[in-house]
Model the fold of this input.
Amino acid sequence: MAKKIPMRQCVGCGEMKSKKELIRVLKTTEGDIVLDATGRQNGRGAYICNDKNCFLKARKSKGLERSLKQQIPEDVYERLQKEFD
Done:
């Protein structure tokens, strides 16, 4: 039997892609927002394509805020954007 590939939806463009292609943005149990490179940290995750345009779309549409169920401060967006550059 073929192994099932976990699919996730990008909060920017809304496309379904395999989990490995996407970057996970994580709200930790302390409420911090970080990029989760391993995809294994505990907390609530949202996924974005590894593409700056998708990140900007997610920021504009507040897709990340909806997924993580909290407001995201401007400085957090700027830090995430630097990691995309």
About this structure: The helical segments are 52-61, 63-68, 74-84.
